[in-house]
Write a structure and sequence with these properties.
The protein is about 0% helix and about 55% strand. With about 270 residues, the chain is mainly beta. The chain has two domains: about 140 residues, Immunoglobulin-like (Sandwich); about 120 residues, Sandwich (Immunoglobulin-like), CATH 2.60.40. The strands form four sheets. Strands 10-16-15-12-13 form a five-stranded mixed beta sheet, with no helix packed on it. A four-stranded antiparallel beta sheet has the order 1-6-3-2, with no helix packed on it. It has a four-stranded antiparallel beta sheet with strand order 5-4-7-8, with no helix packed on it. It starts with a strand and ends with a strand.
């Protein structure tokens, strides 16, 4: 059922330590390196990609300053029945900057045919130098299919291959990627009619430009396409705290959805 999970583990700072193995600061994010996912969200639509990031503390180093660990990811339904398993996967990381914490990130694709309901996500980390184990458990919900926005993430390139944080510097370009799902199609042409806009709001909630960026998709869409990828590009021309607001309207099903993510731009070094 749930599938296509990829784990990324980085170790820019770890030193020898004697503390208990821990997983801390677990949070869902808008893509890899993206902002923390909005609190209060009821669940995710089928077709979405769940990104989550956490810190692993107190991995033991060998005499060459390397941490050796494994990661196991499991998904269970509301009755505890296994739905997906990946690993355990072994990895090694090198100490560079000191400290006792390792950032780790993963993403999990939700197939469009996933049944709605509650799911349990379990990530187990094992320190292979000590055989100590710790497990992160998170509950999540897959919603019933409806028109909505999914796969919201930010990138540094138009091809959406280089993740970019929403804490960025003046002069950078930011590509806001998202997708529409469960849109209606016109009976005869089999084409959707989806209109999208993007606004940037300043720290006082006022738009930074008078007319929002806009676009529409209503032709040349394959009949079997279920997820409609979309994108806007921004040039970050001044420092400040902003909110990026994306809105999508399905003209045929008469539904409008909106999502926001924070953006902070700094002057740079």
């Amino acid at each position: 059922m749930l599938q296509s999970l990829v784990l990324f583990a980085l170790l820019p700072y770890t030193t020898a330590q004697t503390g208990q193995l821990e997983i801390q600061n677990a949070r869902a994010t808008y893509g890899y390196l993206g902002a923390t996912f909005a609190k209060g969200s009821e669940g995710r639509l089928p077709g979405d990609i769940i990104y989550f990031t956490f810190d692993i503390k107190n991995l033991k180093l060998d005499n060459k300053g390397r941490a050796s660990y494994s990661l196991l990811v499991e998904v269970e339904d509301s009755k505890g029945r296994p739905q997906y398993k990946l690993g355990p996967m072994n990895s090694t990381a090198q100490n560079y900057l000191g400290g006792n914490s390792m950032p780790c990130s993963a993403h999990l694709e939700i197939p469009v045919d996933t049944p709605p309901g509650d799911y349990k996500f379990l990530v187990t980390v094992t320190d292979r130098n000590t055989n100590k184990t710790v497990t992160l458990i998170k509950m999540g919900k897959v919603l019933a299919p409806e028109f909505g926005l999914i796969q919201v993430a930010t990138f540094a390139d138009r091809e959406s291959k280089v993740p970019a944080p929403t804490l960025n510097v003046v002069g950078a370009s930011l590509y806001v990627h998202f997708a529409a799902v469960n849109f209606a199609r016109e009976p005869s042409s089999k084409q959707p009619d989806v209109h999208v806009t993007l606004r940037v709001l300043d720290e006082n909630g006022k738009p930074t430009f008078s007319e929002p960026l806009s676009g529409m998709v209503n032709k040349n869409i394959p009949e079997d396409l279920k997820i409609l990828p979309l994108q806007f590009a921004l040039t970050l021309n001044r420092a400040g705290n902003f909110t990026v607001e994306i809105e999508a309207r399905c003209i045929l099903c008469k539904k409008t959805v909106k999502t926001t993510l924070p953006l902070k731009v700094v002057a740079g070094p």
